[in-house]
Specification:
With 355 residues, this protein is α/β, with parallel strands linked by helices. The chain folds into 2 domains: 2-223, Spore Coat Polysaccharide Biosynthesis Protein SpsA, Chain A; 238-331, Hexapeptide repeat proteins (UDP N-Acetylglucosamine Acyltransferase, domain 1). The chain has helices at 33-43, 57-64, 85-91, 93-96, 115-124, 177-183, 195-204, 224-235; strands spanning 2-6, 27-28, 31-32, 48-53, 73-78, 101-105, 108-110, 128-134, 142-146, 152-157, 166-174, 209-213, 218-220, 241-242, 245-246, 251-253, 256-258, 263-265, 268-270, 273-275, 280-282, 285-286, 290-292, 297-299, 302-304, 307-308, 313-315, 320-321, 324-325, 330-331. Strands 5-4-1-6-11-8-12 form a 7-stranded mixed sheet, sandwiched between helices. It has a 6-stranded parallel sheet with strand order 14-17-20-23-26-29. A hairpin with a 2-residue loop joins strand 2 (27-28) and strand 3 (31-32). The radius of gyration is 22 Å and the shape is elongated.
Length: 355
């Protein structure tokens, strides 16, 4: 069995971060989201992995390499434009051959991994198997309709009037039957080849499609609030340890990780939280569910429930919360007089200002 991991896409909902960085490499608990997926694939016993890449191909390849760090072998497959999940299967045809495979969206996060799904698929070997989860608003997802016996009878991508609250999770299992399905597709109203339509083609042509409804935690980390929520979840599992330097005038409470080379002085850190290697925290408060990456500076500031990326600097700021601070960003106080806000914002940014 092989794995096809989708690591392309523009990541428009995470702009401006994704103007300069692949969305799959934005970290939670100081580790890129993509890495959690690759580890889950390896844990399921799959080592031959194809990565679909686009404009951020060089960054993905630098981060993942040949896959040996994860115990896998990687093959990079170029998708010139994000033309849909089924299009990714189409361009990966030579890599996939006639093997069964799992398709995994690289910006998804699933607690507990995919071992059970792979085992269930291998035991029954339907033509396709999908994972479903209940959501409060299904209009932003692929949606499955089940009959009274729980069999999949219909699928629709981002419907205006969903027929159920069962959304497709970003993990799919396929036999080679899917290749005939994707060859018979035409672009949807979104201009994409939809994987939901490919699975519907299998159903319409008498192929067996099974579903598994998961009750565990799943997130599509495509926006800031979901990134912060996944960061919170992962930090709740960390084991406290201090490898860096923590001065005697500091207070560490709860599950706090201070990585090698980090320096903490005159500060209070309330976990769960992680301080990355080479980072300096001086005269500051770091609150729960905060991940500060490597080589950052936090001086005379307060920050909580946030993600701070490599090389960022936060100095003299009273309070930051529910935020993602980008690579090498600088956050400083504004001049007190005259009172005004000075902003340099990337395209599609969102800013909340308290007047």
């Amino acid at each position: 069995m092989k794995a096809l991991v989708l690591a392309g896409g523009a990541g428009t909902r995470l702009r401006p971060l994704t103007h300069t960085s692949a969305k799959q490499l934005v970290p939670v608990a100081n580790k890129p989201v993509l890495f959690y997926g690759l580890e889950a694939i390896k844990d399921a016993g799959i080592t031959d992995v194809g990565l679909i890449v686009g404009d951020t191909a060089a960054e993905i390849q630098t981060a993942v390499g040949d896959g040996s760090a994860f115990g896998i072998h990687t093959t990079y497959i170029r998708q010139d434009a994000p033309l849909g999940l089924a299009h990714a299967v189409l361009v990966a045809r030579d890599f996939l051959g006639d093997d069964d495979f799992v398709m995994y969206l690289g910006d998804n996060f699933i607690v507990g991994g995919i071992n059970d799904l792979v085992e269930e698929f291998s035991a029954h070997r339907p033509h396709a198997q999908i994972m479903l989860t209940e959501v409060s608003d299904a209009r932003s997802f692929g949606v499955a309709e089940l009959d009274a016996a729980g069999q999949v009878i219909g699928l629709e991508e981002k419907p205006k009037q969903p027929k159920s609250n069962l959304a497709l999770v970003g993990v799919y299992m396929f036999t080679p039957a899917i290749h005939e399905a994707v060859r018979n597709l035409k672009p949807s109203w979104r201009g994409e080849l939809e994987i939901t339509e490919a699975i519907q083609w299998l159903i319409d042509n008498g192929k067996q499609v099974r579903s598994t409804t998961i009750t565990g935690y799943w997130k599509d980390t495509g926006n800031v609030s979901d990134m912060l929520e996944v960061n919170r979840l992962v930090l709740e599992t960390v084991e406290p340890h201090v490898l860096g330097t923590v001065e005697a005038d500091c207070e560490l409470i709860g599950r706090v990780v201070v990585e090698a080379g980090a320096q903490v002085s005159g500060s209070r850190i309330v976990g769960p939280a992680i301080i990355g290697a080479g980072t300096k925290v001086i005269s500051s408060y770091i609150g729960p569910f905060t991940a500060i990456a490597q080589e950052c500076m936090v001086d005379d500031s307060e920050i909580e429930y946030s993600i701070v990326l490599r090389g960022a600097s936060i100095r003299g700021v009273g309070r930051i919360e529910a935020s993602i601070i980008g690579h090498y960003a600088e956050v400083t106080p504004a001049p007190r007089v005259p009172r005004a806000y000075r902003l340099v914002l990337g395209d599609h940014s969102k800013v909340q200002i308290s007047s």
